[in-house]
Amino acid sequence: MDLLQAFKGIEDRTSATIGVTDTSAFPEEEERLVARVEAGLHGGLSFTYANPTVASRPADSFPWASSIVVAAVPYLQDGDGDRDGRTLARFADGDRYVRVREVLDQIAAALDSAGDRFEIVYDDNRLIDRALAVRAGVAWRGKSTMVLTPGAGPWILLGSVVTDAELVPTQPMRRTCGTCDACIPACPTDAIIAPGVLDAGRCIAAVLQRRGTIDRTLRSAIGGRIYGCDECLTACPPGRHALMARDTTVDWLSPELILTSSDEELESMVPHWYVPSRRMRFVRRNALVALGNTGDEASLDVLSAYLGHDDELLGGHAAWAVGHIGGSRALALLRFELEREARDSVREELLFSVTECDRDGVYADAVSNARPTNPKESTT
Predict the structure, then answer these.
(1) Cα atoms in the 13 Å half-sphere on the side-chain side of 168
(2) Residue of 172, 132, 175 lying closest to 153 (CA atoms)
(3) For residue 299, what are the CA distances in angstroms to 208, 224, 266, 334?
(4) Residue 43's pLDDT is what?
(5) What SS3 class is residue 333?
(6) Distance (Å, rounded) from C-alpha 67 to C-alpha 163?
(7) In angstroms, rounded to a whole number, what is the distance separating the alpha carbons of residues 6 and 9?
């Protein structure tokens, strides 16, 4: 059996789409990445933006290679069915790369049997996986910047096996999105600023993976999301059939669970997530925003424990979350915390939230000179 027949057998067994391309450069992708960085549209992300030259020139990283075998692997499973209010993007609900690794391992085994050298590569800054997928003919480029395959639409993960085998490249697909632009208005933060152009500074999936403070103008649009965002995918007609064919389950990871778990417990829950420096403070930050958007007065018990937190990032986002829920108890909590908070960044969040809660009054007139009773001790 030759390698192309072996790849076809892997496709039949796994529902993956497999194609082949060479190691030639992607000059247009290098230009695109550089232009995005210069325009500030990379949103501070690194990944392939960190070194566009390396990412767009496979032969520099793999001088021994002749071909790249590319796989697009559908990842929807039971439980992923259509519903609103998910806290996690579907790809992040469990390690969906398990299936990608299985497919890549099978491709690598076929190459190994033929005596060829290989290296498995996925989610790697040395390769622009979407550009490879398009050139290898396993997907076409969508207006959301995601790539799509027939049947699965955008619900795919990509991986490659670089090899010294001299394989005949497969041809790119002729498909396009045509006149469909359903993904563009579906974005909660208007991050798709033109067909195929994404402002990563506004993309919720990117925002929730970055370090630092989440822009206050984006927090409400994040809704209950803790990690990832599927809105441009769920709006995409080619993948709609695949999504609707799946059952629906409730997310297992809630903001309350995150905010009441230890760092060690969180580490064990999300080992497959990209979290900057694996610091769980960023997951907690996301959960504070999510609970501020989806919680009610009962949520203030959890949120109040983060007011005055030693970590300014968490203390500030907790202040916003409490203020966003609002109500008399929220206002009392914020006023009490403001009286004793000395850090400028947290005070600014507290002042903003107090003003939001106390729209009918002027904050300067609302704060009593007397130290208020600690509202964290209140059960009402």
Answers:
(1) 5
(2) 175
(3) 21, 13, 20, 14
(4) 76
(5) helix
(6) 5
(7) 5
Burial track 297-311 (b if 16+ CB lie within 10 A, e otherwise): eebbebbbebbbbee
- Over residues 204-236, the pLDDT tens digits come to 999 999 999 999 999 999 999 999 999 999 999
Going through the chain in order, the beta strands assigned E by DSSP cover 17-22, 67-74, 118-121, 140-141, 147-148, 156-163, 192-194, 197-198
Domain boundaries, the chain: 3-76+92-163, 261-281+295-380
Contact 350, 337 (CB under 8 A): yes
Q: How far is CA 203 from CA 45, 66, 177, 212, 326, in A?
A: 11, 36, 21, 15, 27
Type of residue found at 338: L
Amino acid type, 20 = V
Q: What are phi and psi of 192, to 5 degrees?
A: -85, 95
Contact in structure between 346 and 313 (CB atoms under 8 Å)? no
pLDDT in tens, 151-171: 999 999 999 999 999 999 999
**Residue 367: per-residue pLDDT:** 37
Tell me if 110 sits within 8 A of 280, measured CB to CB. Answer: no
pTM: 0.90
Q: From CA 369, how far away is CA 220, in angstroms rounded?
A: 33
Give me the DSSP letters along 207-219. Answer: HTTSSSPPPHHHH
- Tokens 């993904």 belong to which residue? 183
> Which of 252, 306, 253, 304 lies closest to 281, judged by CA?
306
Helices and strands counted in the chain (H then E): 19, 8
CA neighbours closer than 13 Å in the CB half-sphere of residue 283: 29
**What does the block give as tokens for 66?**
């002749």
Q: How many CA atoms lie within 13 A of 198 on its CB side?
A: 22
- What are the residue ranges of helices labelled H in 66-139? 97-113, 129-135
CA-CA distances (angstroms) from residue 46 to 69, 123, 209, 210, 218? 25, 12, 11, 10, 21
Cα–Cα distance, 50 to 199 (Å, whole number) = 16
Q: How far apart are CA 15 and CA 21, in angstroms?
A: 20
